[in-house]
Specification:
By secondary structure, the chain is an all-alpha fold. The chain has one domain. Helix content is 76%, strand content 0%. It contains ten helices and no strands. Helix 6 packs antiparallel against helix 7. The longest helix has 27 residues. It is elongated. It starts with a helix and ends with a helix. The model has no long low-confidence stretch (mean pLDDT 86).
Length: 200
């Protein structure tokens, strides 16, 4: 039986999580900034803007990555009726990985041609994915779902493995050619769709 206290505690957890996601996604753009121009001219500005292409790509990839994590989190918590202490701690650990995302984004934006830079990004994506899996698996198994949401939550928990698969693929590609790792990251919507089909 869900009480008003249970619902209030769950809503506080959701509000806090949404705030962390919003701040992390906003901070991703901090790395996209123009360097000082030696001469203020159309050509110098154009050259500086073109030079920021790696930052644009890094921002776009990470925004979509964090955005997909938020969508999954939003869907999973929408099926819950209450929370428990373990869910709170697992969710806090997952949010830690989200809050840290701007740093690996800086690495992949500035060092996309290095195995280490891309490898750290892919590795962190795997860690974030595993933390997300832990949250959704616990929510599905601990009886926290509303009566009409248990089956949906279990199916969603299986889909949560898609970021881990993307991270592993990107890490493997980075060990061959660093720039090749951008391929699974950019094709991640297709990977997520395949996981959803498998879930069905």
């Amino acid at each position: 039986m869900t009480t008003s206290h249970d619902r209030h505690q769950l809503e506080r957890l959701i509000f806090f999580s949404d705030a962390v996601f919003a701040i992390a996604m906003t901070l991703l753009v901090v790395d996209v900034r123009l360097p000082p121009l030696p001469v203020v001219s159309e050509a110098a500005l154009a050259q500086a803007l073109v030079g920021l292409v790696p930052q644009y790509i890094g921002f776009l990839i990470s925004f979509l990555v964090v955005g997909r994590f938020w969508i999954g989190h939003h869907r999973a918590f929408g099926w819950l009726a209450r929370s428990d202490d373990r869910l709170v701690w697992l969710n806090l650990l997952f949010l830690l990985t989200i809050a840290f995302m701007p740093f690996p984004t800086t690495l992949i934006s500035g060092f996309a041609s290095t195995r280490l830079g891309v490898g750290v990004y892919a590795g962190w994506l795997i860690i974030a994915g595993l933390a997300n899996v832990a949250v959704e698996r616990h929510a599905a198994k601990a009886g926290l779902a509303a009566s009409d949401g248990e089956a949906n939550l279990r199916r969603l928990a299986r889909t949560a493995w898609s970021p881990v698969a993307i991270g592993v693929a990107a890490l493997a590609c980075a060990m061959v050619t660093p720039l090749l790792a951008l391929l699974p990251l950019c094709l991640s919507p297709i990977v997520v769709r395949l996981f959803r089909r498998g879930r069905r």
